[in-house]
Batch of 3 targets.
Target 1
Amino acid sequence: MYPNLSYILHDLFGTPYDNWAHYIQTFGLFLALSFLVAAYTLYLELKRKAEQGLFQPQPVKDEKGNTKLAYPHERVGDITMVAAISGLLGAKIFAILESVDNIKAFFNDPIGTFFSGSGIAMYGGLIGGFLGVYWFVSRKLKMNPIHMMDAVAPSLMFAYGVGRIGCQLSGDGDWGIEAAAMPSNWFLPSWMWSFDYPRNVVDSGIPIEGLTAMHHNHLPVGVYPTPFYEVIMALSIAFFLWAIRKRVTTHGLLFMIYLVLNGIERFFIEKIRVNDKLIDLPNFKMTQAELIAVILVVIGLIGGFVLKSRTKQAT
């Protein structure tokens, strides 16, 4: 694993672990990259929709205080900033609400829990970012949110996939349950089935013999590398949405397809992923992510049906 940039440089060039690069955390690096990828793909799609006449320029003040007209794709920097702030806020809130223990910890130490460097929920980040951008687009940019929702759908999945690369490389604890015995017909690298996350950033497990670096533990048993699985699935969904975006002519439908595919992906990955149970009854157990995934699928299916029905009635 590569908890921070110094580990990457060590394996590439043999540099020591303890240098300036250890201040750059791998997870944070890919989190930043995820915002950049999302911003770029969103810019391309907003520009395309502006060329279709779906957006009109709105007045905005420049650095000198002068008012000018700007299209949404020219405000991608502002949109990305709103998404980053509201997304991080949502990620922390949902992490606190993820389990009873987290809620108790928050009430015992609200400031320390909220501003701790660990504990974020990716789903909370997506929901928080969406709500922040929705408010900014509808209230500040005076845009029709439904066109923004379609434009942002592929970007959200690109961002999610890139962010999960950071989870896998750093070993941040978002791994799966203990892996079952590897099938005899498994032809891919063994770590794709069962992985022990050596040098993971959360220092979980037992020490690696002969390793004296800051992060020197590995898991005692192999687990499913669920972040890697999510990278593959998320990026596959992202490229699929990007490929069909010009063919889906019903406004809002692309976003509903995104909700359904996102929910299905996360619901099934939760079955082999280590996570706290939000609902923990004798005959019924469900994580927060599973509950949200089900809600997203239901909203996507109902929303898609309603949008298609309205389109048929209009034509």
Target 2
Amino acid sequence: MPANWTKRIIGAAALAAIASGLAWFAWPRPVLVDLATVAKGPIEVTADDDGKTRVRHVYTVSAPIAGKVLRISHPLGEQGPSLHVGDEVAANQTVVALMQPTLPGFIDVRSRDQLQAEVLAADAAIQQQEAEVQRIEAALDFSRTEFQRAQTLLRTQSTSAQAFDKAKFDVANNEAALASAKAQVDLRRAVRTSLAARLMDPANAAPSAEPTCCVRVLAPASGRVLKIIQDSEATVLPGTSLVDIGNPLDLEVVADLLSTDAVQIKVGAPVRIDGWGGQPIKGKVVRVDPAGFLKVSALGIEEQRVRVTIDFADPPETWTALGHDYRVVVHVTTWGAPDGLAVPVSALFRNGDQWAVFADDNGRAKTVPVQIGHRNNRLAEVLSGLAAGDRVVLHPSDRVADGGRIAHREGH
């Protein structure tokens, strides 16, 4: 009997151990979660987008006339102003471009034949007028001889005063006719020269080492060369852009924000500028354009954008590394609170038609409805439902349920 009882006791103990082990493995374990503490602190809502820097006042130098502009940037020794991007210029002193007359254009065959015929006609007209000059000179010589004869006869009373006046009139008339004929010769020679000039083309134009005239285009303002638009030698029309000039230290930032964000932005709103390769810079909004414009995004979506202009609030030493047309990222504050109660956005989920969180209630998850106000991409303002010091579950999975056991994941 004692031996049987011993075996029974040992078997019962083994069964109890196995049952307790199975119960321990089957017992639900707490879900490991990340927890965050609801706290008061500064919170702000920003409108974020890409922007770019630009010189506030850019002066674009244009060609004042049609002509050939010489190469602007070139090695020393060549003809031209030798200007490069970044060079300093002085207002009304520095030559930024040099322009010369253009060569005549080509003439088609029919136009050339017509012009050559007109030149021949002009030569014949000149010869005709020169012959007319010779005829009037002969008539003038004869009238002067007659006038001298009339003077002699008038002294001896051998002619009448009327005949004397007639001889005098003929001299004056022939002198005027001769002057008119000579002027006609000059006119026809000028017409012939004009027609001959129209026959010139690049093939027969007389080469000239030094241009007979040129136009020196001066810088309209002091600063630095930001961009050389027309670098190579070329024939340009009046108004063609040549060079951009500005002061690199007179910078501002422009950003094209969505119109839904722009309506919440006020002049003077603080701005954080980063994403340019240096430390964040403080700025402020100085202008929100009253008109928007359509812009197509990289995904092909049509968006209404509004241009916002931002000035730097930090001293120039913090942003002198920036230049014209540099990319930056702007964060324009649309709302802020210095001591607001905030909960991480990653803790929120929809419970019916309202927001809710899982709060840590002594190791168990408790569904707590919350009312939120403003929010950004990290934090949401808590209006009701939570208090400072409450701990909430971040990124709750489908394993977390109301009343379920939870435990804080170590190392977070």
Target 3
Amino acid sequence: MDLVTAALLLPLDIQIDPNSNGLPGIGQLKKIVGASMTVGLVLAVLALIMSAIVWALGANSSNPHLAGRGKLGVLVALGAAIVCGASVTLVNFFWNVGQQV
């Protein structure tokens, strides 16, 4: 059997969609993921506050290393908040892109 014949034997129209009823515990898993997102957002806010304090202390004490670390911490905390907040939207976006391929 050559490669062309084998390719013609493969099914051409496969329709598989996510099944939220397929496994037991999916509802609890969704609750755990939602709680994890909440914890991540709260920790990002805490990191933002602490980094802003470090930045302020470094700027007021003329310590450029400390001020730089505080600035980096602010950026990382904001990035973490963006990823936590947009994670569902990002996954849905790339799911839809993958469905169009």
